[in-house]
Amino acid sequence: MPEKKDKTYPSQFDKVKEITDKLEAGIQALFESEAFKNYLKTLSKFHDYSLNNTILIAMQKPDATLVAGYTAWQKNFGRQVQKGEQGIRILAPTPYKKQMEVDRLDPITQKPILNPDGSTAKELKEIMVPAFKVVNVFDVSQTDGKPLPTIGVDELSGNVTNYEMFFEALKRACPVPVGFEDIPSGAKGYYHTVDQRIALQEGMSQVQTVKTLIHEMAHQKLHSIDPKELPPEEPRLTRNAKEVEAESVAYTVAQHYGIETSDYSFAYIAGWSQGKDTPELKASLDRIRQAANEMITAIDDHILYLENEKNIEVISFAPKEPVPGLQENGLYRYYSTQRPVDIGTFPKPADNKPVEIHNYDSRIPVEDGSMLAWGYLEYAKPLTEKQASDYELRPAPAAIEAPQKAENSPIEVSKADGRTSVLKELAERKTASQGKNSHKKEDKVTHKETSKVTHEKADKDPHKKAHKKKEETR
To answer: 151 CB contacts (<8 Å, ≥6 apart)?
Structure first.
């Protein structure tokens, strides 16, 4: 009889990769459609703005999507800027030619030619001097006229299971304020880089609202740092690359939670890509996967806390795994998943200082790929949920196997489904809590039974029975 092998389950990061692979395939299929060819033909008429101008546009009109000059809207697109609209001021190059005296160079050696007296020979040469002027451009929302071709759907429809709780978890996982407003441009939402807030269009469907919030959260997470302050190894992204990254993260996170957005996301990403090979997507896949994985981890944590707050009974379909607890060295380990361990990045309770602090050289997979971490801390006692949550620390699984599920437990565990989610963690916590309560109930039952037996013996003993009657008459 062949030896039975234990079934293995993919890590969260592996599942994220599977979703992004599906994303690539879907976009490639879209590129082959006739509708997309017509869309690209129109899009090619729009100017590709520099990084500095993209920043200027975002600062003045964060919800801008397609931008062109006043006459360009008329000539290229058959649209007219509406009366009273305020232009978006950007810098337009206006180089000019100028005659300047420069060193005369040897055409072969490219070294300066010397005069008989030893001085450098000079010559007049026409050069191009860079210069800029301020011009006004306008977003498509500030114009009306001939409709522009589109691909995909304009807006997603449908509801999200447990929408209120899921939306609250997203808000808690977002480090900047989130609000609703009427966005005149027709944009679904935007991240305001100056005010550091996210705005969502009011009145959208639940699916569109959730997808848009995740999109803007991705912008805040990946693109909120001033390009001048980025380290040298970080890429300087164009507007196209930023939009591809944000929507790819939104699609990946939404898919993880069973929310289908492909009809909208595929077209959006394809529309912002520079060509059929989607260079922006391929160059950013690692960043997209890492950002999506981190966001899913944070969202899962907040769903767990919300479930605990509401004290909801949960059925988990996750495989049995070790629960957080003691390590082999007798300490409690917590991984730093969002940043390297440094001053101010971990709790230091007066009665539970960290015993061990360890940083990795980079953010690496740990615990068989179940999470990515920059390092870990170990404590003599477990941290409270709030202490771990405040510093975004993740407890390591214990070296001890999880206890067997008791009979009549409300928690169902199925190995047929390899999904891992916060429901598993909540279920484990509830099992531990129910175990404590059952011990208390057993103590009460034992006490009652002992008391009952004592009374029965007293009833059978005539001397004790008489004594008992006297006590009752008192």
So the answer is: 30, 33, 35, 36, 39, 267, 270, 271
For residue range 11-68, what is the model confidence (pLDDT) as tens digits?
777 777 778 777 767 666 655 556 655 655 555 556 667 767 877 887 888 888 788 9
pLDDT band at 362 (very low <50, low <70, confident <90, very high): confident
For residue 27, give every residue at least 6 positions away whose Cβ sits within 8 Å of its Cβ, in sequence order, or none: 266, 269, 270, 273, 278, 281
CA distances to 33, 270, 303, 304, 333 from 172, rounded to whole Å, are 40, 31, 9, 12, 25
Q: Side chain identity at 329, as an amino acid letter?
A: N
Non-local (6+) Cβ contacts of 295 within 8 A are: 173, 214, 217, 218, 221, 249, 253
pLDDT tens-place string over residues 128-159: 888 888 999 999 899 999 887 655 567 888 89
Q: What is the distance between the alpha carbons of residues 58 and 151, in angstroms, rounded to a whole number?
A: 24
List all residues 6 or more positions away from 443 whose beta carbon is below 8 Å from its beta carbon.
none
Report, in this order, helix, strand and coil percent for the chain, each rounded to 5.
40, 20, 40
Question: Residue 406 pLDDT more than 70?
Answer: no
Name the H helices within 332-415: 385-390
pLDDT band, residue 470 (cuts 50/70/90): very low
**Helix or strand run (H / E) with residue 180:** strand 178-181
Task: Compute the half-sphere exposure of residue 90: CA atoms within 13 Å on the CB side of its CA.
Answer: 24
The C-alpha angle 255, 218, 395, rounded to 5 degrees, equals 75
DSSP secondary structure, 189-231, as one string: EEEETTTTEEEEETT--HHHHHHHHHHHHHHHHHH-S-GGGS-
- Could you give the 3-state DSSP secondary structure of residue 449? helix
Whether the full predicted model's pTM is greater than 0.90, yes or no, is no
Place of tokens 């289908």: 260
273 within 8 A of 280, measured Cβ to Cβ: yes
454 or 416: which leads in pLDDT: 454
Burial pattern 384-411, b for ≥16 Cβ within 10 A else e, equals eeebbbebbbbbbbbeeeeeeeeeeeeb
Given a contact cutoff of 8 angstroms between Cβ atoms, the answer to whether 263 and 155 are in contact is no
CA atoms of 366 and 363, how far apart (whole Å): 9
321 or 351: which carries more pLDDT confidence? Answer: 351
Domain spans of the chain? 95-130, 152-312, 332-429, 437-473
Chain-centroid distance, C-alpha 110 = 53
